[in-house]
Amino acid sequence: MPPTPVRATLARLTPALRGFRAPTAAAVVCTVGEVAAEIAIPFLMASLIDDGIQAGDRTHVVRLGAVLALLAVVALACGVLAARFAARAGAGLARNLRSDEFAAVQRFSFAKLDDFSEGSIITRLTTDVTNVQTAFMMGVRIAVRAPATLVFALVMAFAVDPGLAGVFLLVVPLLGGALALIATRAHPVFTRVFRTYDRLNTTVQENIRGIRAVKAFVRGPEQEARFTASSAAIQRDFTTAERILAFNMPTMQFAIYLCLLLIAWIGAHQIVGGALTTGELVSIISYAMQILMSLMMLTMVLVLATISWASAERIGAILAERPSLVSPPEAVDVVADGSVTLRHVGFAYDSDGDEPVLVDVNLEIPSGQTVGILGGTGSGKSSLVQLIPRLYDATAGQVLVGGHDVREYSLTALRDAVAIVLQKNVLFAGTIASNLRWGAPDADDAALTRALETAQTAEFVDALPDGLDARVEQGGANFSGGQRQRLCIARALLKTPRILILDDSTSAVDTATEARIRAGLRHALPGTTKIVIAQRVSSVQQADQIVMLDRGRVIACGTHAQLLAHCPEYRELHDSQAAQVPA
């Protein structure tokens, strides 16, 4: 029998309690101890009133008074300890949830990352985890305390006077049904609120990332309108949810007053008739307050659960994802050489394959060759090279590296053998040295300098006051596009890979610098297979072979001279670019 959505979500989140099950259990035990002490107090109060105060027995009053004081101290101590243990467990749960989510995102394939927006992932790692943490901390205390108080108080109330305690059997089910109805109505609204939070975060991220374009095109008012629309949607949905939850307190107060009224009315008649003592009535009223307060606490849990359950489901959706790209059980751990073979390769980003990006691609690249790839926008150049390190899996055909299908390799071994500089240059906040050491964590400064020299970057790094220790802002925002490209090339060189892929990664440097980079690569990595995607013919005309792509198909393959002679598309591209060069 498949698990219910509730059980499935709990099963995904429960492992995050690792290392904090002991404080969680301690919080529960302390809470039960607190409740037991509090429940005993009204029972002893009845004896104090009837057998002590009304009977004039001072010894009994002093003895029971001391016991009641001790119970109050025990309840206080247990309550403080329960709160401390719950806080520790809640913070640990949140830490583990964030770590588990982040690790799950790291295992996502590129295809899976396309299914979640950046804003959605960030919200699930922050706001959603905080909601679950708060609900857990209060839940460990209140969700244990309230039911325990309810059960113990009901038992004690029936022990004092079964007839009078029967009032609770009338009120409690009605109250429970009303609260359940409120929760079921509010939950879908909160789910909608968190989806809108995703859109809001995405809008903010896009605006900050593209703030220069926003200002240059004077699109500030439009961006403000997008933000305001998302913010207004959150306000509208949150207001709707709060209107529903607003029925909680009036419903609770109605139940409390109804119970007290019925108990006082029935109890007064029983006292007059001699069927009930004053102490027993006080005890019953105390238990009534405890029962009704426990129900009030349950409504707080209900509100928190309604909000946090939507967050828990969203976190569970991340944790439930299983990586689609995995290493096989008996994986090949060594890439023998840098040869690349594509046999009838097809690829599509959509799972149905209705919009193919690559169609029946056949290509043979011997180890150590330099291969250029040219083609118009959307021709499939970047998609093709991303199949080599298995960032995506081909939907048809075979991709072989070093004589083995890429799906036979350990992902770590395959990706260690391939260095790729993508179109979008990514630098991380830190220093130049820390960014370069992504390519080789143990590289010394001399190795870093050699890589910078090959990438034609050493001159500008040496000019910085801190050199290799110069600060890199988030995304490398404090460097120009050309500088970022060259730093990324230097980082890739430090891997000393079997295969080096440059995906239009010299587009922001001048042709003279690009020529020096190409010469440096030939000298630094003589046995490495180099695959160069470019827009300029001059970037690849010295390659051993040049591949022309058009709409996902290979339309020509050969040397510069061969393509000039036999490929009209290549010749047209060459001539148009040559005409743009000033005399």
TrEMBL record:
Keyword terms, alphabetized: ATP-binding, Cell inner membrane, Cell membrane, Membrane, Nucleotide-binding, Transmembrane, Transmembrane helix, Transport
Listed SMART domains: AAA
Localization per record: Cell inner membrane
Record domain ABC transmembrane type-1: where: 25-302
Gene Ontology molecular function, alphabetical: ABC-type oligopeptide transporter activity; ATP binding; ATP hydrolysis activity
Entry's Gene Ontology cellular component terms: plasma membrane
Transmembrane segments: 25-49, 61-87, 142-160, 166-184, 254-272, 284-305
Record domain ABC transporter: where: 340-576
Superkingdom classification of source: Bacteria
Membrane protein topology class: Multi-pass membrane protein
Coiled coil: none
UniProt xrefs under PANTHER family: ATP-BINDING CASSETTE SUB-FAMILY B MEMBER 10, MITOCHONDRIAL (PTHR43394:SF1), ATP-DEPENDENT PERMEASE MDL1, MITOCHONDRIAL (PTHR43394)
Family affiliation: Belongs to the ABC transporter superfamily. Siderophore-Fe(3+) uptake transporter (SIUT) (TC 3.A.1.21) family.
Name of the featured protein: ABC transporter ATP-binding protein
Species the sequence originates in: Pseudoclavibacter caeni
Lineage of the species this protein comes from: Bacteria, Bacillati, Actinomycetota, Actinomycetes, Micrococcales
